[in-house]
Amino acid sequence: MPTCCAYNTSVPSTCSCGRIVIDPEYEDEALTIFSKYQSSFARRLKKPEAMNLLMTEFGLNENEAEIMFQAFDKDHNEVLSLWEFRQFYQTIGSNGHEMIQLFKKLEEGDSGNIDMEKAFDALKTVETAKGQLSEEEIEMFLKTTAGESKTIDLHKFLNLMCRLKVYKG
User: Fold this and answer.
1) In whole angstroms, what is the distance from residue 127 CA to residue 129 CA?
2) Under CATH, which number does the domain 95-166 receive?
3) Cα–Cα distance between 161 and 126 in angstroms, integer?
4) Does domain 23-91 have CATH number 1.10.357.20?
5) Highest taxon of the source (predicted)?
6) Which of 22, 30, 99, 132 could be disulfide-bonded to 89 (CB atoms 3.0-4.6 Å)?
7) What gap in Å lies between CA 107 and CA 56, rounded to an integer?
């Protein structure tokens, strides 16, 4: 069982520190894919290498790969670490294109933000680690994701979908 911050936790899960705990089942697969694009032993991919990985291995177009890269480059250093890639692989993986399409379906016109009512209805059918969400849970997820701006852009939406993937209630 993997640990983070010295707490044992089952996977997929989020540690008390906020990090997604990597499932060992995905760890070797992620490392195998990641290693194909490494030019050194640093376990980090510069942006061009990471973009190539995302487009080649996951069938994303350049714009979609850019979106995923920006969403998972957590420290915004234009480098994708193995840890950041594992988070992408475990939570989004081959569903990146579909998640972007869902965002576009839920978007208010061309505002760059989702329509909250459409999102509320769409989240009723989303499966989490605990099953389907209650209306109270959906409302909580939407409010906490939107924050003070009361809007959810694509990056916030991807973060929301990742949180839902590991949510156990």
Assistant:
1) 7
2) 1.10.238.10
3) 9
4) no
5) Eukaryota
6) 30
7) 27
